[in-house]
Amino acid sequence: MKAKFVFSVALVGVLVFGGLACKKDETEKVIFFQDGSKYSGEVQNGVPYGNGTFIWWDGSWYEGQFQSGLRHGQGVQFDRFGHKYYEGEHYQDEIHGEGTLYWDNGHVNYEGQWDHGKRHGYGILYDSNGVKSYEGYWQNNMKHGVGTLYNTLGLKAYQGDWINDKQSGVGTSYWGDGVTLSYQGEWKDGLKYGYGKSYFETGELEYDGNWQNSVHHGEGVLYWSTGHIAYDGQWANGAINGDGILYDENGVKSYEGNWQNHVKHGEGILYWGDGITKAYQGGWKDGQRSGYGKSYDDKGEIIYDGMSAYEIPVGG
To answer: Could you say which residues of the chain have pLDDT below 70?
Structure first.
């Protein structure tokens, strides 16, 4: 369902070039135009000035204030079926100031501030069912400043800063219930960017660290849903990359060292289940022991010291 928001040609232009016939009374007139439009109301110097009604050729009309032949001041606009589609202030034939735009089913589309026909300032946007979809600040018809976005049920989806219709700055997103945090932190161009925390749908902390383009990037800590740390270290483009420590679901350290695209790669230490005793220390490639390293039994005694290639000893 589309909200109507298109104005006709400025009335003063129609008056000058359209051709008209009118009575001589300078306070109340009925003016007819060649295209079939009609004005009735107060005039000054032969043009609408004061309160009046203008009916366009297609049957849509405006009731309200005029100045120098233009809609200017408070007024109401209707479509040709009699549905109100705007009520509020006008300035030199444009929506300007405080006003309300309507869907063609009668529900409010937008109520708030306008600047020369564009949403500008504080205002509330609604969907065609009358459910609030955004409340906050606007600039040039775009969300800009502090504002709250709502889901189709009218529950909070995002609350925070906006720049040019996109989440930018600091803000909080919510899971579908509109209460439980999904993410809290920095944004850029509608994406998580900078420092922030994400949360499981149950409300527990999921990740605490840096982001880029809505994925983990830089230093960050990932958590199990139990609250224990799962990984603490470096990330690149959403993957574990660089130096980091891996933990099991009980929070016990299982690996510490280098990573590449989520797999062990470089130098690192593998631990037995106690998280203290080494099981292996040395080189890794594509997630497997490769290069020089030492293997240990669960008592910490060396059982192999030498080269390996993809888990296979090649000397010793």
So the answer is: 1-26, 315-316
